[in-house]
């Protein structure tokens, strides 16, 4: 059972509601078992697709779809069996498409006739696939990666505007995304996930989000006699960590680590941003965050944590999965970065309902009173492209049209059968499935969830977020509606990656590798003075590695990005 989305008027206001109704299944007539993908619609077959989605002043909507073939959505034009190969440049992604046991996959297959053969790997594997000409049908990778630009600039992927116009006019994509991702050759190749523009935010009642957030164990915070307001300054945050250590807080017989982060990721840069750092200087030029005074302040803070035993060597050695395991086991009091805790806290709560990890905001430093942090990849986290040699590109673009419907987006988030919509256009979760997600996230994911939001618009989820979101309802609201902070558009800063194979790309790679080892020396220094000396030495070495040349290159791109958006300054502290 699927549904159609429609607009109706009530009391003079435009209302939106989900009307549950069965789609008329369009079955392809075949005389034998189909082992490959169906071809493009033959001449004379129904070509009319669902009309382009209308937009009210607050929410993206689809027009009502009737049951006739002429009015059926594009993905119903051909539902013959088709297998699409899809490579994701994320070796941690473990999904296996299962149309038998997973409700989302089954519904996708029933609606489109498509099965997905998922392939994963790191960027080295992606580079090998590019070099050998063995790219799968669909490629998903970091939106700001050099590989994306390489694929687009070398004609290795198909223009999406042509495919959309010909086969899937009902594929809804924010125009601002198309404008941002239009290549210098005039074509649009990439669909970004988690993209935020003025248009889709306004249409869907969305908002900017940041992953630069601190989280703490709520039960332990109460145990040490402190509250969340205490955590909003650097000194207050330090005092909370000290209390955990001094009071010898344990959980399940193991001493709790006051603070654990991923220095291999962005912890150092994120804390510097909380303290006021920006990658735009006062004159509007791009600058390295490592040269800012706030980064120095962050290093001194981490050094103080380390010398006081609030931060251990583990933060230099763990990877993301290992940190998540520590958080899920209840061994960590505080961490920075939403991605470190978002899944792990659900696992911890499933085993102990008293052990909740909640949003603790950000803390100010020595010079800033207003926290300004960048949004989390407003230009999108990932980009998804179609291989130029994909023979079933018509089916793929229609698959994207299906995945981008509000219904599929919400199915992916809340599970098939796990939600309905209220009259005020908010998700109402099905209690049994909601309880399963809280008690056994792994079983919920295997049975109901899609984990296939690689092309979808997350502002749809934001605008319909449930009032009954379970144990995390209030916390999610605090994360996304914290009036103490400013979250600014980061597109200009994110889209400055050097072209693969260039001198600047090589410089960036060398600096990235050096940064990780340098952080260890800086933060574990025996005194604050030695910490600063190590930082000074690291900055000299970065300059020797070509930091100045890299920043000059990035500034050129940065200025073009600002010009594209009509901005004189990108950092609100400079405006």
TrEMBL record:
It holds the Pfam family SBP_bac_8. InterPro entries: Bact_solute-bd_prot1 (IPR050490), SBP (IPR006059). Residues 38-48 have a biased composition (Polar residues). Residues 38-77 are annotated as: Disordered. Keywords: Cell membrane, Lipoprotein, Membrane, Palmitate, Signal. SUPFAM superfamilies: Periplasmic binding protein-like II. Coiled coil: none annotated. PANTHER family: ARABINOSE-BINDING PROTEIN-RELATED (PTHR43649), POLYGALACTURONAN_RHAMNOGALACTURONAN-BINDING PROTEIN YTCQ (PTHR43649:SF33). This is Extracellular solute-binding protein. It comes from Eisenbergiella porci.
């Amino acid at each position: 059972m699927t549904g159609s989305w429609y607009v109706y008027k009530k009391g003079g206001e435009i209302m939106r509601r989900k009307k549950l109704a069965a789609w008329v299944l369009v079955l392809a007539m075949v005389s034998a078992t189909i082992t490959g993908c169906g071809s493009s619609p033959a001449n004379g077959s129904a070509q009319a697709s669902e009309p382009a989605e209308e937009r009210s002043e607050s929410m993206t909507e689809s027009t009502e779809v009737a049951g006739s073939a002429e009015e059926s959505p594009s993905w119903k034009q051909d539902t013959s069996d088709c297998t699409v190969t899809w490579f994701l440049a994320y070796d941690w992604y473990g999904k296996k498409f299962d149309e038998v046991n997973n409700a989302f996959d089954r519904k996708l297959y029933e609606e489109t006739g498509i099965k997905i053969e998922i392939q994963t790997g790191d960027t080295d594997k992606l580079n090998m696939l590019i070099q050998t000409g063995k790219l799968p049908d669909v490629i998903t990778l970091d939106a700001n990666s050099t590989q994306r630009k390489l694929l687009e600039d070398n004609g290795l992927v198909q223009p999406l505007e042509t495919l959309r116009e010909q086969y899937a006019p009902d594929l809804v994509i924010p125009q601002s995304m198309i404008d941002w991702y239009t290549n210098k050759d005039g074509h649009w190749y990439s669909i970004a996930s988690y993209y935020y523009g003025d248009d889709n935010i306004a249409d869907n009642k969305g908002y900017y989000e940041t992953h630069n957030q601190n989280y703490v164990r709520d039960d332990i915070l109460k145990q040490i006699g402190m509250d969340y307001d205490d955590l909003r300054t650097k000194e207050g945050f330090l005092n909370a960590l000290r209390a955990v250590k001094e009071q010898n807080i344990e959980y399940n017989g193991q001493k709790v680590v006051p603070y654990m982060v991923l220095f291999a990721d962005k912890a150092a840069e994120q804390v510097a941003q909380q303290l006021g750092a920006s990658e735009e200087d006062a004159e509007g030029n791009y600058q390295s965050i490592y040269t800012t005074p706030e980064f120095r302040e962050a290093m001194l803070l981490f050094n103080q944590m380390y010398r006081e035993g609030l931060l251990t060597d583990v933060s230099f050695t763990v990877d993301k999965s290992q940190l998540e395991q520590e958080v899920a086991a209840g061994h960590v009091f505080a961490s920075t970065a939403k991605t470190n805790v978002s899944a792990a806290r659900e696992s911890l709560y499933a085993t102990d309902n008293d052990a909740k990890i909640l949003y603790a905001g950000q803390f100010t430093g020595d010079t800033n009173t207003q926290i300004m942090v960048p949004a989390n990849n407003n230009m999108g986290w990932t980009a998804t492209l179609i291989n130029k040699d994909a023979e079933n590109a018509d089916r793929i673009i229609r698959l994207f049209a299906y995945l981008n419907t509000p219904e599929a987006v919400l199915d992916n988030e809340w599970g098939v059968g796990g939600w309905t919509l209220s009259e005020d256009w908010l998700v109402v979760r099905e209690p049994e499935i909601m309880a399963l997600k809280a008690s056994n996230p792994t079983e919920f994911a295997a049975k109901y969830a899609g984990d296939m939001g690689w092309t979808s618009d997350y502002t749809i989820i934001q605008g319909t977020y449930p009032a009954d979101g379970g144990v995390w309802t209030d916390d999610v609201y605090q994360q996304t509606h914290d009036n103490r902070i400013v979250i600014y558009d980061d597109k200009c800063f994110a889209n400055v990656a050097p072209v693969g194979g260039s001198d600047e790309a090589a410089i960036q790679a060398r600096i990235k590798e050096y940064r990780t080892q340098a952080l260890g020396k800086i933060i574990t220094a025996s005194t604050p003075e030695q910490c600063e000396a190590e930082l000074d030495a690291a900055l000299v070495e970065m300059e020797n590695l070509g930091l100045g040349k890299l920043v000059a290159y990035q500034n050129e791109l940065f200025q073009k990005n600002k010009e594209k958006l009509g901005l004189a300054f990108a950092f609100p502290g400079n405006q």
